[in-house]
UniProtKB/TrEMBL annotation:
GO terms for molecular function: DNA-binding transcription factor activity; sequence-specific DNA binding. PANTHER family: ARAC-FAMILY TRANSCRIPTIONAL REGULATOR, HTH-TYPE TRANSCRIPTIONAL REGULATOR EXSA. It comes from the Bacteria. This is AraC family transcriptional regulator. InterPro entries: AraC-bd, Homeodomain-like_sf, HTH-like, HTH_AraC, RmlC-like_jellyroll, Tscrpt_reg_AraC-type_HTH. Residues 171-270 form the HTH araC/xylS-type domain. The lineage of its organism: Bacteria, Pseudomonadati, Bacteroidota, Bacteroidia, Bacteroidales. It comes from Candidatus Colimorpha enterica. Keywords: DNA-binding, Transcription, Transcription regulation.
């Protein structure tokens, strides 16, 4: 299951405190009507939710959902200190199966356990909300608390979505490929640019995008070649090939046909006859978030009516 929380509505704070457990304590067994959000300032604590154990350490956040059963089985580390926020749930908060598409709008996904060691701002927001809650009343106190709470939820969602090392390496590889639009980098050259082994790069890229960096590079260059051809159908094929790093026109044509299902000459003929859709700009193609794994059959002919 995955859980989404609405940050587009006002939030009611039931209470917020800073608790220290000098002798250690077992988290109580309960089902609450409010979300119970714990920020571990120091120490460690294990809490079970939905039958799954989660262990918080310093600068971790545990999100215990309203209506979910949660409990502890062992005492926390003596001296464990927590920020605690009890916030009213929204009618729009939802749970979805992992296979269902993510909802649109102002719902953000938050994991039960979020590691915040790399984002000191989240801890500051917890502290600011606590100070605002216990501070003097003002005409806009409730609005301020609601805004701070929604900001905390947004930041927790962002921390939940922190990309893996594999995703980071794969995205950097795409950046290297795009920076060398007029040349073809070998697998070893790609790996050297990123200071990793070929095997490490290949495994990370395949895990994220479903194919090798070299195949991605070939695919994106053939997409770019088709875009150039659509924008400038009069340009000689040799020049188009050179613009994407291919000095061998025969090899370029062979690769183009494998990707587009026809030779460059046949593709150009379809452009002239009006059977190929207008080109996207090369800038849009490169700046867009282009997930090659979506195109495993390499059938990228952009014909009218397709």
């Amino acid at each position: 299951m995955k859980y989404f929380f609405d940050v587009g509505t006002k939030k009611g704070i039931r209470t917020t405190t800073q608790n220290t457990h000098p002798d250690g304590m077992v988290h109580p067994h309960r089902i609450m009507k409010v979300h119970d959000i714990l920020y571990c300032i120091s120490g460690s604590m294990e809490v079970w939710q939905d039958g799954i154990p989660y262990e918080m350490n310093a600068d971790d956040v545990l999100f215990l959902r309203a209506g979910a059963e949660h409990y502890g089985k062992k005492p926390c580390e003596p001296g464990t200190t927590l920020y605690v926020i009890h916030v009213l749930s929204s009618p729009n908060d939802i749970a979805l199966e992992d296979s269902e598409p993510d909802p649109q709008g102002t719902l953000v996904r938050i994991e039960p356990l979020i590691h915040c060691q790399d984002d000191a701002g989240i801890k500051s927001l917890f502290r600011e909300l606590l100070c605002a809650y216990w501070g003097k009343s003002t005409p806009i106190k409730k609005e301020k608390l609601s805004l701070l709470m929604n900001l905390i939820l947004i930041r927790l969602s962002e921390a939940s979505r922190k990309i893996s090392k594999e995703e980071d390496l794969a995205e950097k590889c795409i950046g290297v490929i795009n920076a060398h639009s007029d040349s073809i980098l070998s697998p070893s050259e790609l790996a050297k640019n990123l200071l990793v082994s070929e095997r490490t790069l290949r495994n990370a890229f395949v895990a994220v995008f479903g194919q090798t960096p070299y195949n991605y590079q070939r695919y994106i260059k053939m997409k770019r070649a088709a875009s150039v051809m659509k924008e400038h159908p009069e340009m000689p094929l040799k020049e188009i090939a050179g613009s994407v790093g291919y000095n061998d026109e025969f090899y370029f044509s062979k690769t183009f046909k494998k990707i587009h299902g026809m030779s460059p000459s046949a593709y150009r003929e379809k452009i002239i006859n009006g059977d190929i859709a207008p080109a996207k700009s090369i800038r849009d193609m490169y700046e867009g978030s282009f997930q090659v794994g979506q195109y495993s059959d390499y059938n990228v002919l952009e014909s009218k009516g397709c």
